[in-house]
Amino acid sequence: MWDYTDKVREHFLNPRNVGVIEDADGIGEVGSLACGDALTLYFKVDENETISDVKFQTFGCASAIASSSALTEMMKGLTLEEAGKITNEDIAQFLGGLPKEKMHCSVMGQDALEKAITHYRGESEKKIEGEIVCECFGVTDLEIERVVRDHHLTAIGDVTDYVKAGGGCENCHDNIQAIIDEVTGQKTPVKAKPAMTNLQKIRLVQETLEREVQPALQKDGGNIELIDVDGDRVMVSLRGACATCQMSQVTLKNYVETKLRELVSPELVVEEVK
Prior knowledge:
This protein is α+β, with helices and mostly antiparallel strands and 274 residues long. It folds into three domains: 6-120, Sufe protein. Chain: A (Alpha-Beta Complex), CATH 3.90.1010.10; 132-184, Arc Repressor Mutant, subunit A; 198-272, GMP Synthetase, Chain A, domain 3, CATH 3.30.300. 45% of the residues lie in helices and 19% in strands. It has eleven helices and eight strands. The chain has a three-stranded antiparallel sheet. The protein has a three-stranded mixed sheet with strand order 6-7-8. A hairpin with a 4-residue loop joins β4 (132-134) and β5 (139-140). The protein is globular, with a radius of gyration of 21 Å. 36% of the residues are buried. The mean pLDDT is 87.
């Protein structure tokens, strides 16, 4: 159980400013349902660029809802210039603190605010800069560098708490650690990565199929079901249009197996079970 402050609980159980502003001046959308947290922020401003109304919609945990609610309360009555200075640390402080494992929720609020202001000003959203390090959550090396530098992070788990990088298949942990070492100037002894248990492997395979594979197959009337995982053998059953498709084996090897090797383990072999 997370150790939430009374204020976090209050904003979770009774969130302020939930809803949509149909004629919003600024709209900012961040996150995705696939990664577990999503937030859309709306605001209206008057002739002096003072925020006259603000609302949000969010999908996520208690901290995500509380952070979004807190942000909207903080924005009320501020000019856009003043609101643009709100940081994720300010949001967490407003709530009396957040568990370190949930700081990414306040980061999401800050990002949504920045996007909403960008939208209001008619500016182009910043292009993704840098190289993707965490494939599971689409986090770049520059994003990781920024949170490590701004928040003086020293461990992979801290980075995961702020931007989720490293919280999925863990294949990016070595790269995250290298970035931490470069930014902080520290040298971390290389440790042997513990092997995944079969239960962990099954969970990651199932999550990858649901997030990456099934949506693509369903677009063409097909689907895939995980039957079993035995060591590095992943046994699946094709459903719908995929079950009778002449290219099903190509799909299994060139798409399904490739995705699982990329996001779970490079040793996996996918086999079809009739």
